[in-house]
Design a protein that fits this description.
2 copies of one chain form a homodimer.
Chain A lengths: L3 E3 L16 H5 L13 E7 L9 E4 L3 E10 L5 E9 L5 E5 L1 E2 L4 E7 L4 E11 L1 H10 L8 H18 L2 H15 L3 H8 L2 H9 L7 E2 L4 E6 L6 E5 L17 H10 L3 E3 L48 H13 L3 E6 L2 E2 L4 H5 L15 E3 L2 E3 L3 E2 L7 H17 L4 E5 L6 H14 L4 E5 L4 H10 L3 E2 L9 H11 L22 H21 L2 E5 L38 H13 L10 E5 L4 E7 L6 E7 L6 E6 L12 E6 L5 E5 L2 E6 L5 E7 L1 E2 L7 E2 L1
Parallel strand pairs in A: 3-11, 12-13, 12-22, 13-14, 14-19, 19-20, 20-21
Antiparallel strand pairs in A: 1-6, 2-4, 4-8, 5-6, 5-9, 7-8, 9-10, 9-11, 15-18, 16-17, 23-24, 23-26, 24-25, 25-30, 26-29, 27-28, 27-30, 31-32
Helix pairs in contact in A: 2-3, 3-4, 3-5, 4-5, 14-15
């Protein structure tokens, strides 16, 4: 594909109703004659496009955008079609020629690098020279219309010469002369010259060019938006005694880094409210010394821009971020836009909260549930511009402290236009900032949040446990249109969710859910050390809340426990790092296996050099076996050649032949993480696998 | 559904950035804060909508438009959702409440009557009273928040009373008082009163209401746009001797009316060019007396607004139209926007045609094919406004002569914007005018023409002959989104197309193709008498052109031939008229039958009172039999009750039980046209069928 910068400009051709009008017609009203009346090309059905261009698609640096459109004109003229794209800060379009597929469909592609917002659209026009050339090629040698046709072509080439400059202009003028005069067959040969066709394409006047109805946007993020392993922990539990401080967390950072995580996500680190503070296990009767929920933000010590004094100072936080960076870890903060009753905002901006008829402030309620320790903001307040700006200033504050990832708490309880504005404004200045939407709610709401700007989204993964559920859900997550804007960040557990599968599955259950998360999704996270230490007791039967939840109390964790999943996690994270196939979701495919308790899927790089095949036993209690059916063609394996399957988890290597193969998995080692090595055919009589 | 006219108005609420701003904020730029910032409801995913509202959907008078949207707000508030619609000439919206389905999907419907362009859109808002009522219902009796909640509700009802008038205002004020004071349980009961909920819905302030992004259009046509049987013939062949005149056609009109047709479509009736006139069988060497192709329009006697002198005068044409109307027939004319070289336009407006370098006018060419008798218009001419207006004046001329249906010849060789303008302008004044697109071309082009305004479209039916082809094609034609704008008009033959199936299928082949056309599609047509007289000889082997085609010569037809399909056609057309199930395509469903040569499908009215089941033997040479499987549930038949199948073609009645039944069809009577009569269960001991 050629690529050349082209100045952005309006489509050519005189404005309708002006040029060429006879005097008597100019007197009649021309209002009924539409703009673009001589534009003969139609461009429609463009993909990817979200909600008629209302929302951008998403990419990370280095990825490509493959664009398709239906483009056609009346009659049988040939058309030309270009894909145009530019970073929003650039003035000129880059162009690549689109190629025809079948059925009037055209395809083109461009690669994005610079983070930020890029625009793309399509332009097409009737290619007069190509049409003429196509007809010329089909004219018999004795066609009496050959001389006038050649004369018409020579005129076209002359006109292009006038538009060109330098050597190109001379080449075109020469060609025009050769087409205009001489023996018929020599004239035709000159007209059909391929180099001439290329020159003519370059200097096409694009008369009556059609522009696609909309310019579409692609938001380009850095690599971490697509791929990463997250580790969440409560810093206040990081001390041997008393309230842990950020300064106490260095060993925990070492520990997470050693396990191979990329992102450390901290629950809110701000002062915690005292009025209506919740006690252990979410009771409304706290005892002295109960630490309260970090999500009940704000006290006399400060609000969303302050560090909880018992965690340390802002300087301690800065040192924490630096220490994480030094270990290759990035810190993600929690954005929970709500206030404890003693948050400074409540006194300073009572108009930002909803009031009851008696003048008191309405706390959060979803009858019969009550959250007296939380005041939600009233986004319908007349003072909304000040509220919006203040909330954005919280993000700006932490961005200035080198935080570039925010996990947003319950975004679905704040208005959609607010998030679209906030994320857009922050990323306009800092395109490297990532926002994770923690919205466990209805599907349309989750998708809207992703469309309006959230970089990543929590998912229903926790509640998808059977082969059928996992297959349907991850097929949906990894195929367009959803996959164009919704980037899953999957979590087997969170401080709020201890799924039934973990409660009853024992250590194998944790392993199963971990390997699924880490290989089905390029981005996943765990809440630890509860996860690796197999914490599985619910507050009461049927509940998904943890008993003795860290949300309400400090926990001491014995990281050295022999049954810890630490080594298993380390192993899987290492495999993830080493295998680019696992760094994205687009290639995910599920494969048939004749046992409902076994799931099989693969991911591969675009170039096919890295192919990972995962088989998981979904049954935490029993050994399961079955026959799987691999699509050999997809992996470019010839059916009569052996191929090597190297299980990176167990270490074993198998030589497989053909599509059907037997697998068997014990719950104690519930997954194969195979690398597929194709046989390289060589002249020499020994085998290579790549 | 309630329905009340509501004045069109902007959504409520102060403009962003104005009301309630603190002085210090007013000094900061507010440009970055978007409009509609407090609009919390999202409306998306509206259906039906064509290409993001770029094109209208289509209906006929009396049909309904069922609209669905995704609508939701942040948080857990209840929302209200209305469907708004109006004729474009009306100022105020009509509204109907939409009902929630599952997964944040809402549905509403409206019926269209008045022909022309109607608009529809959706409005939704947070329903504060319904949200409050929902919460109130879930509050326990001892909830300490009950009194403040009731006080807040009373305030809402008072505010609504202030917006209402008359008795409603008094009722609301009374309710507010009952909610505000008294015993708690009585207050709650007053608050939860259903009549109050209805009143509150009527006087909802619709604060921060969201309007769907677009107002969409539906073009409403008269009934004939959906359903009709067309008959095409050449008037010049209607005389016993010499060139037939319009005045000679009265017996032919009687004949077509007796067969039960609705529309008479005439090939162009204008003067035919003499220069480069084509001879019999499309030769370029005409003999004296050869009549030429009616599509080579224009001679010294006139052009598109003239009647061929050998057919008669404009008065003769008027009498022809009246005679047709008297027989219940409507006349459709051909619009072929092209000129013979001796058309008056060529001399008067040479700038409307493309010129070769030597100054001569370019005739139609698609090398190596040449059409020297045709000059296409050059729609890229600088004089396009005059050309467009002149072409529209042709339509206006014949509309003034009471022609209301135009079959448009090769619309795909003229620019799309031209047709969109022309059809839009004509229908703006005459919404009863129908345009049939004769575009046998690529699918995207055919669909674009339908989208931009053509009332009906020719189809690929002629080339769809196997069960698989017919099933796939008619499923596509009768399901959204295509069925929202593309109305098929299917023809087993045309003067241009004698399909292979007819060439080799004999009389059974014609019967098969006829019954398929007349029952698969609500609108169909035949080119007669070639069709009913089984004309089957191609110009040469492999050609789809007729030998001795009427396009180039006068034919004499013996309408009394005993093998004529006249009676069969009459019979099928009578069944079509009597059975409303056959008047539309939306209900078409195909049913399983275990023989590839047998096809089975049904159509039913919305209320299920008319159910037609068609079974056709697609093999014109052999008897075929098979077992069919009927979806009894769809037809509301209980599996243990018998039902009657009455074959309207053969006259036989069968009593069937259960889903599986045997059928057998001979090529000489290749179709069953069953009416399905359900058993009515009665107390009495005899059977009724409805």
């Amino acid at each position: 594909m050629s690529r050349a910068p082209v100045a952005g400009r309006a489509s050519a051709g005189p404005a309708p109703g002006s040029a060429g009008l006879k005097p008597d017609l100019q007197e009649r009203p021309v209002a009924a004659l539409p703009d673009g009346s001589r534009v003969r090309v139609v461009i429609e059905g463009l993909t990817p496009e979200i909600d008629a261009g209302r929302f951008p698609i998403k990419r990370v640096s280095g990825e490509s955008v493959i664009v398709e459109v239906d483009a056609f004109a009346d009659g049988h003229d040939r058309i030309a079609c270009v894909l145009r794209h530019r970073h929003e800060a650039e003035r000129d379009w880059h162009e690549t020629r689109m190629q025809p597929l079948v059925n009037d469909r055209w395809r083109g592609a461009f690669t994005v690098q610079r983070p930020g917002r890029h625009l793309y659209t399509v332009q097409a026009w009737v290619d007069a020279f190509a049409s003429w050339r196509h007809d010329l090629r089909r004219r018999p040698g004795d066609d009496p219309d050959l001389p006038p046709a050649l004369a018409a072509g020579a005129q076209m080439v002359e006109a292009a010469a006038a538009r060109a400059g330098g050597a190109d202009a001379r080449a075109l003028a020469d060609a025009a002369a050769r087409i205009a005069r001489g023996a018929i067959e020599a004239r035709r040969e000159a007209a059909l010259d391929d180099a001439l066709a290329q020159l003519m394409a370059r200097y096409d006047a694009r008369r009556f060019a059609a522009d696609y109805a909309r310019e579409l946007a692609v938001v380009v993020d850095r690599e971490r938006a697509r791929c990463g392993a997250w580790y969440e922990f409560f810093p206040r539990s990081c001390s041997e005694t008393g309230h842990g401080r950020l300064a106490d967390c260095m060993p925990r950072l070492d520990y997470a880094a050693a396990m191979g995580f990329d992102v450390i996500y901290l629950p809110p680190i701000h002062p915690i409210g005292r009025s209506f503070r919740k006690g252990r296990n979410n009771t409304t009767t706290p005892e002295p010394g109960d630490v309260g929920s970090p999500w009940a933000i704000g006290a006399k010590e400060g609000g969303h821009k302050s560090v909880h004094p018992e965690l340390g100072t802002l300087d301690d936080f800065r040192r924490f971020v630096e220490a994480a960076q030094a270990r290759g870890l990035e810190v993600a903060l929690d954005l929970a836009f709500q206030c404890a009753p003693d948050h400074p905002y409540v006194g300073e901006h009572p108009e930002w909260f909803r009031h009851r008829p008696d003048g008191s402030i309405q706390y959060a309620e979803n009858p019969p549930k009550k959250y007296q320790d939380i005041y939600p903001f009233d986004f319908e307040t007349d003072d909304w511009p000040a509220l919006w700006r203040e909330l954005k200033s919280i993000v700006d504050f932490w961005v200035a402290e080198n935080v570039r990832i925010f996990r947003v708490d319950n975004p679905h309880t704040k208005p959609f236009p607010f998030w679209e504005w906030l994320i857009g404004e922050v990323k306009r200045v800092h395109p490297d900032v990532l926002f994770l939407s923690e919205a466990f709610t209805r599907p349309k709401v989750m998708h809207r949040l992703a469309k309006l700007g959230f970089t990543q989204s929590y998912t229903y993964f926790t509640w998808r446990n059977t082969k059928h559920e996992l297959t349907a859900y991850f097929t949906e997550l990894t195929t367009p249109p959803g996959s164009e804007y919704f980037r899953p960040n999957v979590w087997p557990n969170t401080p709020d969710i201890l799924n039934e599968f973990l409660q009853f599955g024992g250590r194998p259950g944790f392993m199963i859910r971990f390997v699924l998360a880490a290989t089905l999704a390029a981005t996943y996270g765990i809440y630890g050390p509860a996860f690796e230490l197999l914490e599985a007791e619910p507050r009461e039967p049927g509940s998904e809340e943890y008993r003795n939840s860290e949300k309400y109390e400090i926990r001491r964790w014995n990281l050295q426990r022999p049954d810890s999943l630490r080594d298993f996690i380390t192993h899987v994270n290492r495999i993830r790092r080493e295998h680019p196939a696992l760094h994205s979701n687009a290639s995910l495919q599920f494969h048939a296996i004749d046992n409902e308790q076994l799931i099989c899927y693969s991911k591969a790089t675009d170039d096919g050099t890295d192919i990972v095949l995962v088989i998981v036993n979904l049954d935490p209690h029993h050994r399961q076996s079955g026959w799987l059916e691999l699509p050999l063609e997809r992996f470019c394996i010839e059916s009569d050649r052996p191929y090597q399957m190297h299980d990176l988890l167990g270490g074993a290597r198998y030589l497989w032949h053909g599509a059907r193969n037997y697998v068997e998995l014990d719950p104690q080692a519930p997954a194969h993480l195979f690398i597929l090595r194709r046989h390289l055919r060589r002249e020499q009589d020994f085998d290579y696998y790549m």
